[in-house]
Structure formats: C-alpha cells, structure tokens
Design brief:
Helix content: 10-25%
Radius of gyration: 34 Å
Oligomer: single chain
Number of strands: 43
Low-confidence stretches: 1-25, 106-117, 550-554
Distance between the termini: 98 Å
Strand content: 35-45%
Shape: elongated
Length: 843
C-alpha cells in the first residue's frame, strides 16, 4: 500500500512537471509572417491570443515574439486585405512558426440576406449611408501608382464572346448546315439554355512607370493568344474596342464613350438612393455593405452594392449592374465588378476588373438571342521604388513583330491566374475546326467586307471601296468608280491602290494610283507617291490632307439642294514621307504638283489674273509640313494602315504649306498656316460634347483655287465638320476661325416626357460658327472676285437640334437634324432652314 501511494505521488509529480513545462513553453510563441504568394515579410499584422478581441501585438516586421501570462493555445493573425489565419499552438510548434497569409478577393464577401423594400428618409442627412458616403468623398483616393518614384506590375486580360440563349430551334436553322458540330462545345447557362463560346483572346501586359525625376510610362504586350481570329481585322478590333478602364471614384464612368453616373462620385446622391444593409467581413476586414439604385430607371446609371472599409472608408469592392431600361444601342445589360487594394489612406491599387456586356443586334427582350462579351483583368506583381533600367521605356522593333507575342502552352499555364474552364478550352479547338470549314470562311469574309468596305477577290487583292462604285454630279452625270488595293494581312508594311472612274455625261475616264511603303514599325517611317486626274469638289474640308485616292463626299451626291456646279478638274502628283518620333505623334512632309481648272467653265469661273494676263488654269507646287498628335489614341495593328479604336482621344493638327513659284511651272509663292483640334468630352450625366476647332491664314495673295473655303454641305446627308446652310464658295477667306459644338444628351431630356420616353430617342443640340477675312487683293486677282466675301462683319452661325437613336429594338442607327441659319440672311439663293438625315452607327 505504501508502494502504491508512493507510485501515485511519483505519477502526479511527473504529470505536474510535464504540465508546468508545457505551460512555460506556451507562454511564449515566436515566428515569421509572410505573403503566401511571394513569401515577402508582412508588417502591420495584428496577432490575437486565444479568443481575445484586442490584439496582443501588431508587428513592425515579418518576425514576431508573443508573450502571455496565461497559456497560449491559439493565435489569430489578421491584416488588412488578407485572409485571417488561425493556428493552434502546442509545445512542439511554439518556436519559429511560419505563417503565410493570402490576399483576399471580393469573391470572399460573405453572403447575407438583403433587406427588402426601401427605407424612406425625410432628407438625405437622416440616411446613415449618406454619412458614410460623405467620408468616402472626403477621403477620395487616387491611383496609388502616382505616389511612387517607380513602379511596375503585370496585367492578365481575358476577353470572351459567347452566344447566349440558344435553343433547339435555333440550332436547326439552315445557316448552321455543316456547322452543327459547334454545338457540341455549348454548355448550360444559369437561364437553363445553352451558351456557346465563339471568341477567346488572352493577353499579358507588362507595365512600367516612373513619376520622378521625370514622368514616363510604358505598357508592353508580351503575349497574346486568340481563338482563330488573328488575321481577322474587324472581329479583333471590335472585341478590343468595347471596353474602357474605369476609376470608381470618378464622377462619370466611361462605357462605350457614353457617360454613366458613378455611385461613388461626389454627386452620386443626385442620381442614386443609398441604403446601409449591414456590416460584413471582406478579406478579414469589416466593411459597410451599401446597396444603391437609381432614382429613375430610364437614366444611364447602375444598381448594385458598395463595400466600404469601416475604418478608412476606402472602397474595397463594388458591383455595378445596369437597369433593365438601359438606353444603349445593341446592349441589353452591363455588369462590372471591381476589387481594390488600399495601401494607405490616400491611394488605391486595382486588383481585379470584370466587365460583362450582353449584346443583341435587334431585341432587348429577356431570353433573346444575344452575345455575352466578357473581359476580366487581373493586376499582379506590383513592385515600387525599385530602380528601372531606362531601356524598359524605349520601344524596340522586336515588340512589333508578330512572333514577339507567340508563347507556348507552358507559358500560358503559368501566366493565367486561374485555369481555363472546359468551355473556354474548347473554344480554341472549335475555332480551329471552323477555320477548315468553307461555309464559315464565307461568313467571315462577308463580315469583313461590310466592315472594311473592301471585298477580297483573291490572295493579296481587295476590290473596293464597295460603297463608292456609283455616284452622280453635274459634270459627269452618272459615274462608275472601280478600285483595288493590295492586302496580304493586317500588318502589311506596304500597300498599292488605284481606282478608275468613268462619267457617262462628259465621257471622260479619271484615275488615281498610290503606293506606300513603311520601313520601320517602331517609328513608322514611311514614304509614298501617287498621281490622279479627277473631278473634285475643292473646299469640302478646311484642314485636308494631300493624298490622291480619298474621295470628297461632296463630289458625288444622290440628293442635294440645288445643282453642284462648283467642281474643279484637278491633275495631281504627290510624294510624302512620315515618321513617328514619339508614340502617337507624327511628322509628315508632302510635296505636291497640281494643275486646277474649272470643270464647268461656262457655269463656274476659276479664271484669274497673273502679271496682267488672264489665265484659266492654276499651276501649283507646294511643300506641306504637318504635325499630327493623337495623345491617348489606341491602335489595333502595326501595319501601314491601322484601325484606331474609338475613345475620347483628341486629334491635334498643325500644318504649314509653302508654295514655290517656278517649281514645275508653278504660278505662286505663298505661305499658309493651319490648326485643328478635335476632342470629345464626357460632361457628367449630361452626355457628351464634341468640339471641333479650326483656324488658318493665307499670308499671300492667291487665286480662288488655292484659297480657304468655309466648307458647305448641300446634300441631305450628315457630313461632319461642315456648315449645313451654306452654299459652296459662299464664304472665301484669307484667314478663318471655325468652331463647331455638338452635344449629345443621351436621352436626358426626352426621358422626362411621358409616352415619348418609351421610344428611347436621344436629343442632340449643335451650334456652328465661322469668322474670316478676305483682302481686296485676293478679290481682285479673280475675274469674278466681286462675288466672294468672308464672314467678317459678324460671326456666321447656324444652330439646330437633332433626334438620334431612331429605330426599333436594339437597331437604332438613324438620325435626323433640323438646321437653322442664324444670320447673313440677305444673301441671294440661301437656305434658311434645312433637314439632314443619315445613318449613325454607334452605341
């Protein structure tokens, strides 16, 4: 019995020693906290002991030591924008533990039940969401890239088009004969119908930038993979042209170059109702969930949720979904999801952007056959304030070669943040099969023809433009025009083109031929030469180029007010050289030799006096230097002809022309200076303003054929940058200034009118003005110079309004303008009022 008692004592003593040892070991824990993705040490990590709600330690580096008077059996690690990690602590793991925290995503947002209905407040100040949004506005953040001396990051972009709402009846249509194998790649959608991927483009970009000591940036496409459409210029451009990058903090968000009111903008309460739904957890951070919806369903606005950090009032994420009554052509719905990282109280960094459009050419009805166009961008590998080699900002010829972006499957497996779905993987195989199907290639060819205006007759040769085959004017009567160009691919470095035309009234052949060659895709150094003989309407534009093949829209018209007799017969030969020393900035030099005379001498007199002699032909040789800037413009190709994507980029042109008397029998020395600025502006929720400003001066006395003509539009169609109520040659100037303002309200006004708002029409207002002078010497040099004058007494102006978006369903591409002439009403044969109409394809 004594032995047993002693054994128990020894047993309890042994157990107590073990317990004491474990308690001692678990009073202190040490280790390191790192980022799971790159193993970089993390600071500002809150470490909680057991179930404590107050952190025992906030780390200042990756290493930590935590001590406690009680037993530490659990540690919780929490850091902003990271997923919270909890570890059980035992004597075996209490020393040198290794903790990896993963960055959280908006997709980690906890699901909650939204409140039904909408709370009514006497005023917005009673709404708790208003107080929260006020703090968001007070601490409006800017893109964090601006705060660092240098930065770099990567983008992975995926763009996908899917046919949506397919059914058995649709799949049995004759158009799919011999193409029915594609439906084996279809998959069920949330609606229960089939969706079929038809286009997939993946791209990887590397971005570099510096803010100090000087500012510079570069975005390089390093890899691209497209499902079977690498050579299809129209489809690829269309896909890239749909999307714009957005900043949720801006007052206006740009979609399709149409302004949508941002729910995070400082004037959001004028458009939206906000409701505070709950306080939830996102990526380990507490956040306010605010639901918002537009006050009126028929405005360009969104509905969705905002997730606002409860401590810093930063936007952690947001969803934006259009209303069912969205008034955008071809678009049934818009959905966007954004995620932001917030490194400090003043800045944000984009993490993810997903934008999805449902598009249908005809119907907005739910369940209609449509295309889902989805683009997702993942931003990763941010690095700041690290030295950057100056070479990374320089363009290299290698970047413009087709093979530069060709990567193998192993590269894409590593580059993708997530693996492709089964349907996405299938689209590559499906398009490869379609490429071998003659019927599909014929369909693609038709689409390309309508988009490019050229028909590919056989390899390397296009016929067109197809819409310029027939025309009519007073000199030629009925006119037939046939043309062709070389075309081997969208990145051709050379192009030759020609046309020939025949007028059945004057029974004369006309022609034009031009060839261009680009030596370097990096600086786009190119040369070209051409010659033409044709009937031309001079003065159709003020700041016009010197190419030989473009056709003036006013030369041939089907319907116009009055007869166009002010046509000229022009023989022209030209050469040019151009280079882009900087991106989107071109320097071009043109040399031109031409002879100009009236095409109808008995009705339109271009005769002039030279050294006391009467002459009917102007011989002109001149050199033109042009500076053309398009800051922010985006182009889809690198060949000699590029397609510019639609955006809000301006066009700025400065042009100097020097006429050289005696060169190739030229008659005049003269100097001319011209300037043009074209720029669209989004004006908040009020729509888009398009500005076109031009100015110029002829410093010498020249005859009518070389003067500046304020451009008129006698047709009943829509011709941009012209004056609808002027006659040709009504105003002739030595010096001129013109300003054209056109504002698209996007239905803002008409949406208030009952019944009419159901038509989804959009209103346009415009005003155009011109001022200029014409010297007595310039009048005297022309035989009938007394007929011509400039708008020097008053600024000539005309004004009006238009109705656009006329049509049915999603096909609303017709526009009608009503124009009034503002002054100079006493001139003979004028038009005080006119109606113009035409097709305007756009969103």
């Amino acid at each position: 019995m004594m032995l047993n008692n002693n054994s128990q004592k020894h047993y309890f003593l042994f157990f107590f020693l073990i317990l004491a040892g474990s308690v001692c070991a678990q009073n202190k824990v040490s280790g390191k906290v790192v980022d799971e993705k790159n193993n970089k040490e993390l600071n500002n990590v809150d470490i909680f002991i057991n179930n404590d709600k107050t952190p025992a330690l906030t780390t200042t580096s990756g290493n930590f030591i935590v001590k406690s008077d009680s037993i530490i059996h659990q540690l919780r690690f929490s850091r902003k924008n990271y997923t919270t990690e909890t570890l059980d602590i035992t004597p075996e793991n209490a020393d040198n533990i290794f903790v990896q925290l993963s960055q959280a995503k908006v997709s980690d947002i906890q699901e909650i039940v939204l409140q039904s209905g909408k709370t009514k407040y006497k005023n917005k100040k009673e709404n708790p969401a208003y107080a929260i949004m006020q703090k968001v506005w007070a601490q409006k953040r800017n893109n964090g890239l601006e705060k660092f001396d240098t930065y770099s990051y990567k983008e992975y972009e995926k763009t996908q088009f899917d046919l949506n709402n397919l059914d058995s009846a649709f799949m049995k249509k004759k158009i799919f004969n011999k193409l029915d194998f594609i439906f084996s790649y279809a998959d069920s959608t949330a609606s229960g119908r089939l969706g079929l991927p038809i286009f997939l483009n993946e791209a990887v970009y590397e971005n570099y930038g510096k803010n100090r000591p000087d500012k510079d940036s570069k975005r390089t496409l390093v890899a691209q993979k497209t499902s079977g459409f690498q050579d299809n210029q129209v489809i690829t451009v269309s896909a890239k042209n749909l999307y714009r990058d957005i900043n949720i903090y801006d007052n206006t968000l740009n979609y399709f170059d149409i302004g949508f009111q941002s729910p995070v903008g400082s004037d959001g309460f004028s458009t939206y109702d906000y409701s505070l739904m709950d306080t939830i957890t996102i990526r380990g951070e507490k956040a306010f969930q605010i639901r918002y919806q537009p006050k009126r369903k028929d405005v360009l606005a969104f509905q969705g949720n905002l997730y606002i950090d409860t401590d810093t009032y930063a936007v952690l994420g947001a969803t934006l979904k259009s209303t069912q009554k969205i008034n955008v052509n071809f678009v049934n719905s818009v959905y966007t999801q954004v995620e932001y990282d917030n490194p400090d109280d003043a800045t944000f960094l984009p993490k993810k952007l997903v934008t999805e459009f449902e598009m249908s050419p005809f119907s907005k009805k739910k369940g209609a056959k449509s295309i889902i166009a989805k683009r997702s961008v993942d931003y990763s590998d941010y690095q700041f304030n690290k030295p950057l080699d100056p070479k990374v900002f320089k363009r290299t010829e290698e970047e413009y070669e087709d093979k530069f972006t060709n990567k193998d499957d192993a590269y894409w497996t590593k580059a993708r943040p997530d693996t492709l779905s089964k349907a996405e993987q299938g689209v590559y195989n499906m398009l490869d099969q379609l490429q071998q199907t003659p019927k599909f290639n014929r369909m693609v060819k038709l689409f390309e023809t309508l988009g490019s205006r050229y028909y590919n007759a056989f390899k390397g040769i296009d016929i067109g433009p197809i819409f310029s085959i027939y025309g009519r004017n007073e000199v030629e009567g009925d006119r037939i025009r046939l043309g062709a160009r070389t075309y081997f691919g969208l990145n051709d470095t050379w192009r030759a083109q020609f046309y020939t035309a025949y007028g059945f009234k004057d029974q004369q052949f006309k022609y034009g031929v031009e060839a261009r060659y680009m030596f370097n895709k990096l600086n786009r150094f190119m040369i070209g030469a051409g010659t033409s003989r044709d009937i031309v309407q001079l003065g159709g534009q003020l700041t016009s180029g010197d190419g030989v093949t473009p056709q003036s829209s006013s030369t041939s018209t089907f319907f116009a007010r009055g007869e166009n007799i002010s046509l000229s017969s022009v023989n022209k030969t030209s050469i040019f050289a151009a280079i882009e020393p900087w991106k989107n900035f071109q320097i071009r030099i043109d040399g031109v030799m031409q002879s100009i005379k009236s095409a109808i001498p008995e009705k339109f007199n271009l005769m002039y006096y030279k050294d006391g002699q009467l002459r009917k032909t102007v011989n002109d040789s001149h050199v033109t230097i042009s500076l053309i800037a398009k800051p922010g413009a985006k182009f889809s190709q690198t060949g000699i002809d590029r397609y510019q994507a639609r955006n809000l980029a301006p066009t700025i042109v400065l042009r100097y022309t020097r006429g050289i008397e005696g060169l190739f029998n030229a008659d005049f020395n003269y100097d001319k200076l011209q300037f043009m600025l074209y720029k669209p502006f989004l004006i908040g929720s009020m729509g888009k303003l398009v500005v076109n400003f031009e100015a110029g001066k002829n410093f010498s006395t020249v005859p009518l054929a070389l003067q500046n003509i304020i451009p008129a539009n006698l047709s009943y169609g829509l011709v941009p940058n012209t004056f609808s109520q002027l006659n040709y040659y009504e105003f002739v100037t030595d010096a001129y200034t013109t300003l054209q303002l056109e504002h698209h309200f996007n239905g803002k006004i008409l949406s208030y009118i009952p019944l009419i708002k159901k038509l989804k029409l959009r209103e346009v207002a415009f005003i155009r003005g011109a001022y200029g002078t014409l010297s007595n010497a310039s009048k005297a040099i022309n035989v009938e110079g007394f007929k011509y004058s400039a708008p020097s007494e008053h600024i000539y102006y005309e004004y009006g309004f238009g109705i656009e978006n006329i049509g049915i369903g999603n096909l609303r591409i017709f526009r009608v303008d009503f124009n009034w002439r503002g002054n100079y009403l006493d001139k003979p044969d004028i038009s005080k009022f006119g109606v113009k109409a035409g097709f305007q394809v756009g969103f």
